[in-house]
Amino acid sequence: MEDKNSEQEMTVSDALSQLNPVKVRSLRQIPALPDLGINNLIKEGETVSLPRWQAHLLAREGYVLLVDDDIEIELAKACIREKGSSVQLFPLPYRDFYARVKDRLRTLGNGDLNDKRRHDHVYALMQELITLRLHKILSQLAASEGGALPKEVLSEEEVELVRALRPRLLAWKRGLLEVK
C-alpha cells in the first residue's frame, strides 16, 4: 500500500512554471519534433528558449544544457534587497524565480569541483532568501488580520503558501483570543 504522504504532489504553481521559458544551449543538433512542440531544427551550440518541461526532457536525454547564468546574479541582488529591510517584501525578478534557481542548482550539481562550489554558494543564498522572505511573509500575515498581501511581490510558490496559511492562521488567532 502506498503512503500518500511520501508522494510529491504537483502544485498549480509547479505546473504553470513548467510552461515558462528557460535558456538552453544545444549539445548536438536537434531535429524538428512536432510531437514535443519543437517545430524547427535546433543547431548544435545554438542557444534558444524553450518551455521548462521541454528543456528538462531534452537535458535528461543529453541534448541540451540549461544556461541561465544570470539567475545567480539576480539571486544575489534579491538577497541584498531583502536584507536591506526587516519589514518590506520586495518583488522577485520573475514570478517563477524559485523554479529558475532550482534549475540552476541542478545544472551546477552535475559539474566539476568549481561548479560544486558555485552550487553550494547558490544553495546558501537561496536558503537565506527563503528564510528572509518567509519571516516577512509570516509577519505581514499575522499583522494583516487576514488582509491580502500584495501578489505582485510574491512568487508563485509564496502565493500558494499564503493561500494555505491564511485560514489556519486566522483560526488559530481566533481560538487564542476567544473568551468564554
Polypeptide structure, described:
α3 runs parallel beside α5. Helices cover 52% and strands 8% of the residues. The chain is built from six helices and three strands, in the order αββαβαααα. The chain starts with 11 loop residues before the first helix and ends with a helix. It is mostly helical. Strands 2-1-3 form a three-stranded antiparallel beta sheet. The protein is elongated and about 70 Å long.
**Total of helices:** 6
Helix content: 40-55%
Low-confidence stretches: 1-7
Strand order of the largest sheet: 2-1-3
Layout: helices, strands, pairs:
Blueprint: H1 12-17, E1 21-26, E2 47-51, H2 52-60, E3 64-66, H3 70-83, H4 97-108, H5 113-143, H6 156-177
Antiparallel strand pairs: 1-2, 1-3
Helix pairs in contact: 3-5, 4-5, 5-6
Compact summary:
The protein has 180 residues and is mostly helical.
Primary descriptors:
180 residues; mainly alpha; three-stranded antiparallel β-sheet; elongated; disordered N terminus
